[in-house]
Sequence to fold (143 residues):
Amino acid sequence: MLQRKAQCHCAALTVLCEGDPTFVAMCHCQACQRRTGSAFNLGAWYAAQHVVISGETHIFQRTGEEGMQLSYHFCPACGANVYWLASSMEGFYGIAVGAFADPDFPPPTLSLYEEYRAKWVKVPEGIPCSMTTLSGINPKHHK
Ligand SMILES: [Zn+2]
Ligand SMILES: [Zn+2]
Fold:
């Protein structure tokens, strides 16, 4: 089975993922811009049984739209946010695609919060786009 490893900046926190992600989402929302320090977040979602985490984390929690509870796990040593959980995606982990640092990582399959997308960012052709969150798109059934 194909395995890929995500790790934080200092490598103390690692996440081993089996197989391909269920989906890969670009999120252009302002919270993700601030969280990542980048133009958008790129997150790969894996079912929990395909994820093995090692290393300590600190957690930042916030409430998203529609009351969604989000918890972001980051390395206490280097501060890199490697993975997160969302109450709307029970049984799944969102993993920062950048943490894999893999040019062959599967491309995005969804684009969220398009209304905040930086004008120069091009979304891969033909993928579902939402102006807000996952409404209208069921990522669990999307491949
Ligand atoms: Zn670290
Ligand atoms: Zn976002």
Q: What stands out?
A: Residues 52 and 111 are 26 Å apart (CA to CA). The two ends are 19 Å apart (CA to CA). The first strand starts at residue 3 and ends at 7.
